[in-house]
Specification:
CATH topology of the largest domain: Immunoglobulin-like
Strand content: 35-45%
Structural class: alpha+beta
Number of strands: 29
CATH class of the largest domain: Mainly Beta
CATH architecture of the largest domain: Sandwich
Number of helices: 7
Shape: elongated
Largest sheet: 5 strands, antiparallel
Helix content: 10-25%
């Protein structure tokens, strides 16, 4: 077939594909839900708040429903077009600056957008700020704290505002400070406008978190602003040097209270605290030697991670507890800092029966309600079954004692004689069994002595495996070393063990453990490396010719349930 004929044959298919693609571009995308939000939930009289509305409808929202409570200072529109899964999606964003006409809590009604409506919103409007603008100052500052009488170690929010009525060429704003106070800046600066004393000001708002380290009177010192105002030549002129300006805020006094007499230790003043078990539910039953994972997490609003206590578990009778490394995180929220601390534990039952995990709790102080609170996790009970049958060795049944016949009892005499015969027979078989066992052990010892350090693994050395599992569960590298040295009796150090092993992965894991213990190398990923390497039965180099290339697979260290 010629090239021309081939193209003609494919033409209908190409035309269909083009038509399908063109049609898909004009298919209407799924309608997105109309979304509306405010950039702040509380402002003062004279300030502006930005209302944002997002919709895929081209029709402009009807802002007239806001006129009874707001003056629209400015508005802007932005449109984005994108192709999503072959469909064209159009998103419109309207942003309007609103200035409230009254104080109090204002309910923003649903705003019509085409055939949809926005959800109602709520805005709190505080009384108009009173500052140095009353004196006609073109630049001034104000500082306020959300709690003038906090408890020691309680986080206090501080808000710093810079007001300026003329253009600023540049400026530098100092950080608040005070003796006995930790200060940390949070969030991003907010910029808006506010009317003070009938004059319009631009405002830069900055937020901090204060943590008083002692009780008693404390003072946040004056914060200074140094800058240059646009004056003289045109503000954009190269020759404009501006007018220097220096202003400062009033100091802020706080009366820090000590921890209440009925407060618990450790002292945890927080707005909210959540103590949770983030692990999957523990099984109602487990077996001896199983590793049960428990994960605890505490999250506190108004505390850093460093202020939270270490997560520990009380001793559990009949079980060992192997804690993992803790994780700590301090993040910012709209109201301050949130501290998070979490930890995992491996619980290994040691005997059958029942183990009891008692109730775990944290007592903290609710700074909002000013009262003591307790967060608790319920107690747990787990039934422990015996270990798998492979761990139980076969034992000969003990001989049953037969009572001697009573003197003069003619009827019992034959039975007594038969009983003595069975006793003699049992003694003979028991003696033979013990001799066989002793002979086997003697031969095994002779074979191991003859083979030297490279002797194969014997059943007596098999206890290394549970020891290694327990050591890795609690990240105990020294215990892992002791367990591994039991693989090849006669080896005194990890380097000798590495030479004795046939598998390269196991040799490398042993040498990595040696470096971590004695050479100070990083141990990152070492636990998982050891688990993976010794998930297979170790084969010694002297036996490599008679064994599989990488050893025979063993049951996993942590078998799935």
């Amino acid at each position: 077939m010629t090239r021309l004929a081939l193209c003609a044959a494919r033409m209908p298919h190409l035309l269909a594909a083009v038509l399908l693609l063109t049609a898909s571009l004009w298919l209407p995308a799924a309608r997105a839900e109309v979304r509306a939000w405010l950039d702040r939930s509380a402002i003062g009289m004279g300030e502006t708040v930005t209302l944002n509305i997002e919709s895929d409808d081209r029709q402009e929202p009807d802002f007239s429903v806001l006129e009874p409570d707001f003056r629209i200072a400015s508005r802007s529109t932005n449109t984005q077009v994108q192709i999503v899964n072959g469909a064209m999606a159009r998103t419109n964003l309207w942003a309007v600056a609103l200035e409230p006409l009254r104080e109090g809590v204002i309910e923003l009604p649903p705003i019509p957008v085409g055939g949809d409506r926005t959800a109602p919103l709520q805005l709190t409007v505080r009384p108009m700020a009173r500052g140095s603008a009353a004196n006609g100052d073109e630049v001034f500052m104000e500082v306020e704290v959300d709690s003038p009488a906090p408890y020691v170690q309680q986080q206090v929010g501080l808000t710093l505002r810079l007001f300026y009525a003329v253009a600023l060429l540049d400026g530098n704003l100092d950080e608040p400070a005070g003796e006995g106070l930790q200060v940390r800046r949070v969030g991003q600066d907010a910029q808006y406008s506010r009317r003070v004393g009938g004059r319009a000001y631009n405002v830069v708002e900055r937020h901090y978190v204060l943590t008083p380290e002692r009780s008693g009177p404390l003072t946040v010192g004056s914060v200074t602003f140094r800058g240059r105002l646009a004056s003289g030549a045109s503000p954009g002129s190269f020759f404009s040097q501006g007018t220097p300006v220096v202003t400062g805020s009033d100091p802020v006094a706080m009366d820090v209270r000590p921890a209440p007499a009925d407060a618990s230790s450790p002292w945890l003043p927080a707005r909210a605290l959540r103590f949770t078990d983030t692990s999957s539910s523990l099984p109602a039953q487990a077996r001896v030697g199983d590793a049960l994972e428990l994960s605890l997490r505490v999250e506190a609003e108004g505390l850093s991670a460093e202020q939270l206590p270490e997560l520990v578990l009380p001793p559990i009778e009949g079980a060992e507890i192997y804690p993992d490394q803790e994780t700590r995180e301090t993040r910012e929220s709209g109201t301050g800092l949130v501290g998070v601390r979490s930890r995992k534990f491996a619980i290994v039952p040691l005997r059958e029966g029942r183990i009891e995990l008692p109730e775990r709790s944290l007592t903290w102080w609710n700074t909002g309600d000013d009262r003591r609170q307790r967060s608790a996790l319920p107690a747990l009970s787990i039934e422990v079954l015996p270990a798998p049958a492979s761990s139980a060795a076969a034992r000969p049944a003990p001989a049953t004692a037969v009572p001697e016949a009573a003197a003069g009892d003619a009827f019992s005499a034959p039975w007594a004689a038969q009983a003595r015969l069975w006793q003699l027979t049992t003694l003979i078989f028991a003696t033979a069994w013990i001799g066989t066992v002793l002979l086997w052990l003697l031969n095994a010892r002779r074979r191991a002595r003859a083979a030297g350090p490279g002797a194969p693994v014997t059943p007596a050395a098999s206890s290394w495996r549970p020891e290694l599992a327990h050591a890795l569960a609690r990240a105990d590298l020294a215990a892992a070393r002791r367990a591994l040295l039991r693989i090849a009796p006669g080896t005194r150090d990890l380097e000798s063990l590495a030479h004795a092993l046939a598998a390269a992965s196991q040799r490398e894991a042993v040498r990595a453990l040696d470096r971590a213990l004695y050479r100070g190398d990083a141990a990152e990923g070492l636990i998982e490396q050891l688990r993976a390497a010794f998930a297979r039965k170790p084969v010694l180099a002297s036996e490599a010719a008679h064994a599989a290339p990488d050893g025979q697979a063993l049951p996993p260290l942590y078998p799935p349930r």
